[in-house]
Amino acid sequence: MPTRMSSLPLFDLISFARRGPGQRDRLSPADIQHIARTVGRTPEVMVKVLPRGTNNLAAVRRHLGYIGRQGALDLEPDDGETLRGKVVGDDLLADWDLELDAYRGRAELTAARGKPAPKLVHKVMFSMPAGTPPDKVLGAVQSFCREAFALKHRYVLALHTDEPHPHVHVVIKAMSEDGQRLNIRKDTLRSWRAEFARQLRALGVPANATARYVRGNTRPQKPDGIFRASLRGQSIHMRERAAAVARELATGGLRVEPGKATLTATRNKLRRAWLAVSDVLVRDGQMELANRVKGYAEQLAPARTEKEFLTAHLLQRSRAIRVQERDLAR
User: Fold this and answer.
1) N or C end of the chain, less CB within 10 A?
2) Cβ atoms of 126 and 196 closer than 8 Å
3) In terms of Cα–Cα distance, which of 254, 283, 252 is closest to 24?
């Protein structure tokens, strides 16, 4: 990956909450721009690695069929040529020599029994909130992929606009052309999010890449399958969780989860960090932004566990039903 991308500055908010000699008291121009975007609630980018189905040819073929909507959508590989059709997946598997990678993976398994087969590809999704121009999202991902993977890792991408939020699926060959394997770690995703946001801003689209905890978002994240099923109201997992919360409420109240204290302590540290940033901005004469940061810190939502989120949802739904019944009785 290019040095410029991997060394992209990432705002470290929590360092401002530290006491003593190690406490930060300087803000770079990039930090200030990032802070202004965050407290201004600039739309946040999402970069997500999709699980499963990456270590065998059949699964990769199925995923290529899925992102191409079984031949109905265009696929754009790294050579820039647009592909469409039901056999595109087979053509890509052959062009990328994935059969050879799969054979090597089986050989590695023979040498090291008990280990899972190495990934043949990585499945990544780049997304923006509803209302973002899809062509801009596609253009930003195209630029990102050229800078990150060109002449190294083969890739193919597809734009999806069948949901409110435009998103681009990217399939990246795990083994590079010179035999180096791509490993995606947390720091990798952080830098990818920052670069994706930068590419969007270069196209005139407001975009930001701030960690969830820095924004005070404590809502637990669910695996992709559960999340999508819950959006359709079909998640068995979420129905069972909601039913358990309802039983607790009906029998005397919600029991406090063990992680609540940790969530509260983290939220307090986050608030101190934002207030410390406000103090630094005041010292540097940036009063308007300092006041916005202070307001942002004071308006951080309370830290809530999953059970508390579900409780709020159940109570809200119960109130809505009562209002509806009252209106019908009039």
Assistant:
1) C
2) yes
3) 283
Sheet with strand 46-49: strands edge to edge: 46-49, 121-127, 167-173, 155-160, 76-77
The residues, ordered by sequence, that sit 6+ positions from 180 with a Cβ below 8 Å of its Cβ are: 152
Query: Where are the chain's structural domains?
Result: 46-202, 224-329
pTM of the model as a whole: 0.80
Report the SS3 class of residue 107.
helix
Q: Which of these CATH numbers, 3.20.20.210, 3.40.20.10, 3.90.1580.10, 3.30.930.30, describes 46-202?
A: 3.30.930.30
Q: Return the minimum-mean-pLDDT range out of 2-16, 215-229, 316-330.
A: 2-16
Q: What is the pLDDT of residues 248-261, one digit of tens each?
A: 666 777 676 777 88
What are the two backbone dihedrals, phi and then psi, of residue 79, each rounded to the nearest 5 degrees? -85, 0
When pLDDT is cut at 50, 70 and 90, the band that residue 38 belongs to is: very high
CB atoms within 10 A of CB 189: 15
For 206-230, b/e burial (b = at least 16 CB within 10 A) is: ebbbbbeebbbebeeebeeeeeebb
230: left (phi over 0), alpha (psi -120 to 50) or beta: alpha
For tokens 């969780």, name the residue. Answer: 241
Expressed in angstroms, the distance from the first to the final Cα of the chain is 66
Mean pLDDT of the region 120-141: 96
State the alpha helices, DSSP H only, in the chain: 3-6, 29-39, 57-67, 88-95, 98-111, 134-149, 186-202, 224-231, 236-250, 260-283, 287-298, 306-329
Distance CA 126, CA 140 (A): 9
